[in-house]
Specification:
globular; alpha/beta; homodimer; 421 residues; 3-stranded antiparallel sheet
Amino acid sequence: MSKLTVTGVTITPIAVQDPPLLNSVGVHQPYALRSIVEVHTDAGITGLSEAYGDDPTLANLHKAAAALPGLDAFDVNGLTRRVGVALGQVTPDSPTELVGAPSVAKTVASTVSAFEVALFDAQGKALGRRVCDLLGGAVRESVPFSGYLFYKWAGHPGEEPDEFGEALDPDGIVAQAKWLVDRYGFGSLKLKGGVFPPEQEIAAIHALRAAFPDHPLRLDPNANWTVDTSHYVAGALEGVLEYLEDPTPGIPGMAAVAARTGLPLATNMCVTSFDDVPAGIAQGAVQIILSDHHFWGGFRASQKLAGICETFGLGLSMHSNTHLGLSLAAMTHLAAAVPNLTYACDTHSPWQTEEIVEPGALSFVDGAMPVPDGPGLGVTLDRDALARLHGQYLGCGIRRRDDITPMRAVHPDWTGERPRF
Amino acid sequence: MSKLTVTGVTITPIAVQDPPLLNSVGVHQPYALRSIVEVHTDAGITGLSEAYGDDPTLANLHKAAAALPGLDAFDVNGLTRRVGVALGQVTPDSPTELVGAPSVAKTVASTVSAFEVALFDAQGKALGRRVCDLLGGAVRESVPFSGYLFYKWAGHPGEEPDEFGEALDPDGIVAQAKWLVDRYGFGSLKLKGGVFPPEQEIAAIHALRAAFPDHPLRLDPNANWTVDTSHYVAGALEGVLEYLEDPTPGIPGMAAVAARTGLPLATNMCVTSFDDVPAGIAQGAVQIILSDHHFWGGFRASQKLAGICETFGLGLSMHSNTHLGLSLAAMTHLAAAVPNLTYACDTHSPWQTEEIVEPGALSFVDGAMPVPDGPGLGVTLDRDALARLHGQYLGCGIRRRDDITPMRAVHPDWTGERPRF
């Protein structure tokens, strides 16, 4: 095989329309930011990936990109080293408040991830292999995802209602779930909670249970409850939920909740980097880790996390932020190659009406995503969409995720402070 | 790239001359057993590896080999699954008493390893890539090894003295160390202890320190000391040793030693599979794990272990049993690709006078092994040597490792029971 050496990188920020999904911090802005990373090689092969698109991420991606020409596309260790050096004394800045505290390690990890995924795509294209083959082989040819339910307004303030409709009570959530299950076949359901007082969200879960007697259910209030409230909700929903996600902030808080419930606790907020793992395990704070290659450091780092979960008897699933098809393809290849993926993965996909990859490669079948055929990630960048969504980025004025300000437009006293209940 | 599918496997047991090296269990037999694994593919490419050669291992290798035709050579997950099924309710049987308790998981892991290494060799040959490139990229182009010192008899009982000479006291050990350092350039030294009363071994370490003021020193009594004796030796050698290896049996015993010494403890006996890791970490039993791809489950499993060590702040080095060049090449590629290899690796290489790979690819330079050029492991099987060493296997009569019986020939009351001191 000829060498496969990085010659340059193109980073294109894009903005995609996003509905007014509610969470504990506030509400999604009208546009979500992503960046499309293209890593070019001397073989004429370009590897693709999708990353966060906020200003701090873009600055880090550009800093790191400048250090990549000359890198062997197989040299993941070299990538990590170069990114670490390039970012140097970077100021940690988390792309979203919903994935735990920012740190230098996480900033480096998310930057590494953006390029590592593209390198694997390039490797796969060069070898005529799927990314999942390069990650140890698919243990499943189709990856189960869960239907992701959100409380939402009918439309962004001052705008027409969107196609998804309002969902602000149990009936609305059940209707939303029916749409997701009918359309995509999801076999499990997750409600983004932490929006309304716990009683209302408990009622929504019971309504879902009545409407979907056999669907595993999850509830994620994004750390918007005190330990006491968490105990109350856990008691009310033990035997109903498959797991409870991030009820309360921090490892000690989660450990206090875990100590008094039989309900497994999951997290993508209190154990979000390898630095958090020892304390999380020692304190028994979580039973399931919701991994995310975007901020854990890429495919190999996610497999390292999977190995830790397997070794320590923790469950494993996958977290999602708003994303498009390049991320979905990456998540699917990774999930296909991780034997101990014990729960269906999260995805925001159904909420996105715009796409960056050409149609055909990614379609849910019975709530699961068949692994795209290779080579690489098995998806093709839609250049027209890229141009259009980049134009949308230039025009939309949004430069970092902010769920608080748009909520303040409706509730002037809103602070987004948690735990609120 | 064309497919790379396993078409068949050849397993050839060999016996190699081994000097009378002493340890806590007894003494090495005149021959050590290994097996050479050749995995054939439809591309005409054959992947190589070296494994244990005792009867139980061979039976498992053959059982698993029958399940491999049709396997994609990239599909490590599929290999693990097939081996697990093929071995089914295997009776656990450790190839040596010196690498911890046997278990089904370890039996499966060592069988997987034998084939996984060969699959990576085949992948590398197919892609024109070094194995270390496929493992994430070399973070070092030369892997440091330590000089492995043994108490030894002049020759096997009833035979002429061998070329290495006798070493039964501090002077003999220092002379041996000088030979190893002069000839190979090793920058650190490890004494296999647990042979003589601790005072004598402490004296040997002090003699080494006097002769080699700057060489990091290690002592490995293979769990032949009680906790009290371990405390005594640790106290005597704190500040002298780089680490103390497996002073006493079991995780609780090691934890009791660790609690009362500042000397880091290393192990290849009490934490030898992923099942041991949680207790080992929770009890603080060890500060350094001596990994070994042969029994941890291969390259990927060893990287998983490395990830755990990095995450939990444990040191990492590499254990060695008697081995030849195929294993040395595999160890070197793996060690080259593991960023957090924090100590020089062990190797028995200097004690082997016979070899299975063609000369030229493997030569220590300043105590370190340069990573062989690819493709694959970068070594070539010496077919004449294979035939000769297989003949030696057929003729030698040894079918599993047994350090006790040959010691009994000299000391009729010998039981090999530990801890003896």
